[in-house]
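Our preliminary data section would be incomplete without showing what the modeling component actually yields. Below, a chain of 75 amino acids is followed by its predicted structure, encoded as tokens that our downstream tools consume directly.
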Amino acid sequence: MNKINWVQKLSSRKFWAALIGLVVCIVAFTHCDQGTTEKIVALVGAIGSMVMYMLSETIVDAAREENRIDGDKTE
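Predicted structure:
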């Protein structure tokens, strides 16, 4: 069985759009008012943005470190 690549999943805009859609549907199902729905969606969006930023920076830093190490080997 294949393992799930969580870094790829969490950095996907499609994943966060689907998650926000799911949250909106759950909130609508529970008959929350519009203000509460907006706050919940804003919170999920903010968390998603920060997760995407952190994972993107991690990938860039890892690539930079790998290039630095490869550069040291060729000298």
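The longest helix spans residues 34-74. The helical segments are 6-10, 13-29, 34-74. Preliminary results of this kind motivate Aim 1 of the renewal.
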